[in-house]
């Protein structure tokens, strides 16, 4: 079994679509895991994944990014707080937000904290999705190591978290603001009508064709005037061709009708 056949079988058996990933990086990650497990070939590895749920989870963890941190790139989140969200809230009392590929939850929870401060009376909808069910389970627990909260201000740390030893427990009110569910960006349909979509430091792992298709689908998922927020490691060079207006570095707006 060659690598192309392996990807096809993973999709057929598990529903995980791998063709959109950049192949050299994906193959390198999978080969390194097989080497660590001393699995001789792709056929044997496929059998192992079919028989051992722990190895399947390890496989998912290897090919996805399942950890994050609150207010990652604080200077960029400051622009979200001071410019982008106030602009959206000036037009919409209640915001509909999607954090795509949210990992273990710090990103959507960061947005929830901001909305709790900027528009506490609003009935906001914050959807957060990821392909990794174990990461989503961790997100729902809302318990984080100190590394994940290193960019949180002391005031917010005291207001929104309870510290127990080396772990920080997020306030229940903020946890209840976010709806987590499993979603595969490469195969599942997108909802629509979002005022803000965050998809940060994930698209870089996909092929150029897949990136463009995702950005096109994000555009369609945004409400007119809605904003796409991408990662600091990413660039949307074709934003005009896709229909976006550049609001600021890493922020792209779907024009109003």
From TrEMBL:
Ranges in a coiled coil: none
Reaction(s) catalysed (UniProt annotation): L-glutamyl-[protein] + S-adenosyl-L-methionine = [protein]-L-glutamate 5-O-methyl ester + S-adenosyl-L-homocysteine
EC number: 2.1.1.80
Gene Ontology annotations of biological process type: methylation
A GO molecular function held by the record: protein-glutamate O-methyltransferase activity
Superkingdom in the source lineage: Bacteria
SMART domains from the UniProt entry: MeTrc
One Pfam family per UniProt: CheR_N
Primary enzyme class: transferase
Protein name: protein-glutamate O-methyltransferase
Organism: Neomoorella stamsii
């Amino acid at each position: 079994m060659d690598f192309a056949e392996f990807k096809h079988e993973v999709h057929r058996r598990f529903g995980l679509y791998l063709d959109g990933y950049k192949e050299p990086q994906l193959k390198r990650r999978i080969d390194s895991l097989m080497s660590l497990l001393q699995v001789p070939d792709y056929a044997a590895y496929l059998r192992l994944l079919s028989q051992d749920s722990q190895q399947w989870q390890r496989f998912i963890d290897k090919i996805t990014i399942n950890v994050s941190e609150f207010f990652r790139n604080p200077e960029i989140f400051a622009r979200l707080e001071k410019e982008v969200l106030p602009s959206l809230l000036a037009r919409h009392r209640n915001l509909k937000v999607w954090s795509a590929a949210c990992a273990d939850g710090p990103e959507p929870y960061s947005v929830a904290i901001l909305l709790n401060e900027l528009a506490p009376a609003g009935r906001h909808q914050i959807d957060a999705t990821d392909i990794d069910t174990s990461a989503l389970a961790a997100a729902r627990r809302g318990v984080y190591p100190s590394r994940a909260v290193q960019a949180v201000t002391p005031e917010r740390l005291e207001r929104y978290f309870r510290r127990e030893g080396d772990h920080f427990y997020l306030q229940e009110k903020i946890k209840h603001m976010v709806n987590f569910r499993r979603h595969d960006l490469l195969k599942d349909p997108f909802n629509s009508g979002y005022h803000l979509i965050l998809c940060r430091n994930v698209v870089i792992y996909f092929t150029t064709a897949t990136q463009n298709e995702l950005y096109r689908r994000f555009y369609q998922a945004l409400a007119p005037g809605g904003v796409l927020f991408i990662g600091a490691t990413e660039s949307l060079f074709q934003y005009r061709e896709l229909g976006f207006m550049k609001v600021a570095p890493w922020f792209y707006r779907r024009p109003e009708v």
